Amino acid sequence: MAINTSGVTMRDVARVAGVSVKTVSNVINGYRYLRPETKARVQAAIDSLGYRVNVTARNLRQGRTGLIKLAIPDLRNPYFAQLAALIIEEAAERSLTVLLEQYHGDRDAEMAVLQNDNESFVDGVVFSPIVVGQDQLELFKVRFPLVILGESVFGAPCDHVTMRNIEGAKAQVEHLLAIGRRHIAVIGLNDDHLSVSSALLRFKGVTNAMVAAGVKLDPALVAGNAPWTRPGGAQLMDDILDRGIPIDAVVCFNDALALGAMSTLIERGLSVPDDVAVIGFDNVEDAAFTRPTLSSIDPGGHQIAHTAVKLLCERMGLVDGFDHDTPAREIFTDFKLIPRQSTIGT
Amino acid sequence: MAINTSGVTMRDVARVAGVSVKTVSNVINGYRYLRPETKARVQAAIDSLGYRVNVTARNLRQGRTGLIKLAIPDLRNPYFAQLAALIIEEAAERSLTVLLEQYHGDRDAEMAVLQNDNESFVDGVVFSPIVVGQDQLELFKVRFPLVILGESVFGAPCDHVTMRNIEGAKAQVEHLLAIGRRHIAVIGLNDDHLSVSSALLRFKGVTNAMVAAGVKLDPALVAGNAPWTRPGGAQLMDDILDRGIPIDAVVCFNDALALGAMSTLIERGLSVPDDVAVIGFDNVEDAAFTRPTLSSIDPGGHQIAHTAVKLLCERMGLVDGFDHDTPAREIFTDFKLIPRQSTIGT
DNA sequence: CTGAAAGCGCTTACAG
DNA sequence: CTGAAAGCGCTTACAG
Asked: Which stretches does DSSP call E strand in B11-50?
């Protein structure tokens, strides 16, 4: 028994108020041309009976539910928690509610998002894929409104919103070069599924910047294949320092890695940024509060959420004048370098 | 246009397969007594037409949606992100999907959860209230299945799942006493809405333990009214140390505070745990990875999620043999002390 | 400004 | 094992 099945229907209200169900419907939906007296009588009947509209019936009749699905790997990952928070808020602005699905690492679950078999009573889907990838682009050609996020897939036949990984990483290095650093280590070059695409793109940005500046990147100063977490960063920093090659800066592929790297540096008696400058990526909340505060790249999460919901609404037919034959769009959001103490000092 | 409105209906399938819609329905819902040949013919028709069941129509007919709402303050708070992750997983085990709503600090939004006016096409609600509280218990007497979480409200006329705050905090102090500490500081006694109830309960547990052990609590060693975050903990620890009263232990009301407090202690040249032992509450993932690792209270998040969904399912009529006249239940989950380096060393 | 009627696409007694 | 029919509770042309 669903919430709304209180037993009282519009017909009951209509009978008590002495009007037709059409009139009751008009009152509920705020139809303007109603005699105030009629409206009051209907409202009184609604109140006295404790009537609530059955949203499922309305949905069936209208052919839409106002529900969108957000499919992400795991809420325990702070990046996705924040993404979900933002998407929910953007959806609420458009009177949409969000059904949240975590597929964890599971390939089948991820495929199922694109299949959308059973519980498909949602009007659209926002999907941040991880495993399903570049070699199966045709899977993204679905018949429901779909917007994908992230960097696992490019060129899929559906709308796509993603951050500028390459340019962001390039900006990290350019910033370090600008403050005079030349011996730059790189942390986070992983080949696991969750981070591989970001890692590769960001590494590309790093090498682009180095090449452009004529600074060489020492392969012995590149570390990866640890989780993108504080402990991961701490360990990778240890590994690099143990190699005994002098460095004056570290580029980290996310902030958690950077925070971990900083703790190792400080623990080993090095000063940040005087001895070694550190820069992260993501601009998480902690970055502004840790000591020293952490320089980072803000990838524009708000804009990602806003754009994703906007594109989805267009595909869902909620935006007047949108041409439904518009081909798949690929939107890159704006990033911003946030310089803080870990590179420029106090 | 909802996803499932592909235009093809059961009637179309029935016509193509040369059977009645009842038979199509039987095939879709896995009814067992079907001639294999009939089944195959129907399946072929489904495939060739690309038919998908219209879940909204099914929901209307069945009077349920399989959807539950989870209302929490904000996903950006890691505690609630983890809670949401667990609830979604527990719900999935019972073939339920979760509609996630954030009400932020907004009182009206929180009230609306209990009103459940408009979009009430969910079968039940899990609600972690913050502002709506002890003085409005009657608001929790709703006509839809409702389970509340947390410590804002006790004795409400609906099912309630919560952790043992008092006993958990008592265990924190008992642990410190057991390792010989007597000069114990307390961090996190806030009076903001988000933490006040937890703070008061945990403080009560602390004082209970001190009284029982005959150890006095110096009011000058109690600090609060900072956010329950790392920087908050760092600042409060600074405040306490600045007062110049010697301490040998700190009880922190959550792990973020404890991590912040530890960083201050270490920064000021004190050893953890040799000079000062530190214990947190929540047992977040970081607790096991920070150096020194952080002793903490595991409040049993998995059990909270499991129990909440179980109670809700009972109220939703999904559990055979459940007596619907069962009065409102108050369930306390089990906590566990996790001793780590920050109290017992390596 | 309001009413009577059709229909959204399913599932489910009721027959057979 | 399968069919014909009713009905879940709304909204929406169509009349008036």
From this structure: none
